[in-house]
């Protein structure tokens, strides 16, 4: 396993290079990706007037949704490493009447506390497994919460219950040249939080209590349009940066390669159904070191 500084630099570089793909796909991802975080929002039940943090907010769709729920008087803060995604979130959304909505660019691992702290609740969709030093990042989150505040996050389980995810990389990589290094062992990546015992250890080490790790299966429904669906998956994944740099012919070959591997998840005329296995992570702040 590489050292933390190397992993952190790799994560920063990855998201700087992948952000343009997320920006391009933002509306599509908000729509198809909705089931990826719905269960965490249900558990969290943000209330009017609360302050809520969204860790790894991407282009801001979930943060804006939370801001609408906590209005009036509440506020939502979206934090993300990728400046281009934060800039996009700021352009896309304004605060609903009576609520605060703010987007912050920063690395959750290196902040003392997230601007806007202390928070009553923290939400995070599909981000925590990507942290180079998860205990450092989770400790920042916990320090940014008031005593007893609640956390709800979703992450992938393992590759067996998310078969479309490796398919989206494998089908494209053959056409696109060098890819970012594949994670080894506990290195950050989509399946780095597959082991629930490890996830519990990380949250406990960061000072969380009442830790719960719950399996949750969803299906991502995508339209019956292979060109659109394969481009969405390539652009938000590890092949995204190389895809955007490639010639149109090569891009077409990459989409066709992914389409072949995803065919088993497609019903012609009905669309794609992508089976997705998540953990819902729930916990509370123990209330120490709240700013
Ligand atoms: C898989 S995306 C999920 C985005 C969004 N939550 C969603 O579900 O659409 C992971 C996000 O986490 C952000 N991220 C990764 N490492 C981070 C860190 N150390 N601090 C803050 N954000 C980070 C990335 O920039 C990216 O936007």
What does the model show?
- The protein is an alpha/beta fold and 291 residues long.
- The protein has a single domain (4-159, 184-222, 276-285), classed as Vaccinia Virus protein VP39 (Rossmann fold), CATH 3.40.50.150.
- It has helices at residues 4-24, 26-32, 35-44, 61-70, 83-92, 134-143, 164-176, 196-205, 226-235, 240-245, 248-262; strands at 51-55, 75-80, 100-105, 119-125, 145-156, 208-222, 266-267, 271-285.
- Helix 1 (4-24) packs parallel to helix 5, helix 7 runs antiparallel to helix 11 (248-262) and helix 9 (226-235) packs across helix 11.
- The protein is globular and about 55 Å long.
- The chain starts with a helix and ends in a 6-residue tail after the last strand.
The gyration radius over C-alpha positions equals: 18 Å
Mean pLDDT: 95
* CATH class assignment: Alpha Beta
What is the CATH superfamily label?
A: Vaccinia Virus protein VP39
**Shape assignment:** globular
**What characterizes the major β-sheet?**
8 strands, mixed
Helicity, as a percent range: 40-55%
| Helical run tally | 11
Show unreliable segments.
none
As a percent range, the share of strand residues is 15-25%
**Heteromolecules bound:** S-adenosylmethionine
| Terminal CA distance | 33 Å
The CATH architecture name reads 3-Layer(aba) Sandwich
Order of helices and strands: HHHEHEHEEHEHHEHHHEE
| Global structural class | alpha/beta
Please give the number of β-strands. 8
CATH third-level topology: Rossmann fold
Count of folded domains: 1
Keywords: Methyltransferase, Transferase
GO molecular function: methyltransferase activity
Pfam families: Methyltransf_25
Protein name: Methyltransferase
